[in-house]
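Hi P.,

Sorry for the delay on this. The queue was packed all week, but I finally got your sequence through. Input first:
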Amino acid sequence: MNIVLQTDFSNTWGGVASMKGIIKSVNDSLDIIDLTHDIDKFNVFEASLSLHRVIPYWPSQTIFISVVDPGVGSERLPLACLTNSGKYIFSPDNGSLTHMKKHIAQSRIIDWKYGLRNEGSVFDGRDLFANAAALLADEQITFEELGKEYPVEYLSECEEYSIRPFLELHKTSGFIMTGNRHFGGIELNIKNKDFDNCDFDFGDKVNIVIKNNECILFDEEVKYHKAFSFVSKGKAILYPGSSGFLSLDINQGHFMNTYNVSAGKDYQVIISKKP
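Then the structure:
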């Protein structure tokens, strides 16, 4: 059985390796795959988006462990969830399950008897999630045995999830939902189809303003098109992102670094069609 790991640990210390060691100690034949360990630290909204975008491509019975846990050691609940498509997610109940919530059939509070100790720690990823997930993967326990059921409707949701973009003819606004720190592109909380419904067409020139609170970081005319090849190297382009949300980047450049922008609801984006 596959176990897929997602954390905000990075690979600069032994956190990920220790979780893998726990899993392999249960059964050395279990397959461990890294989704990412570069979630922006403590960013549960990014963790939630990441899970939602990757889980559909994995087969039934895959186990996901997501540990982005700024409240580790607190009263937030350690959960194991079963999705409608037969996949499992182990995660703290802190908003990391926001986007998957509507796809979850059942959730359970993981009993600490399946951990390496009998109480919480400051490393639940190693001391609880990894061991409990490995026991499930190795069929030493069933999903029902993991702990008492917890109502799915009680799962925590990130505040950002409820923020809706402003949409009208030839004008829209939203916030930077996530950023690709490797390639530098940003993704807005504006769906591609909603943007098109505001009467924007490929080839349009649009004015884009990005503000962090009241500080203007970007105010330029940008072409809206379907691929980077429609603008020259070094030029910004607005395009329909592959995850279904409007995106902005520089052709063979790094938008985030160039304009000192990041993700979050404080980064507001206003887009208007040029006459």
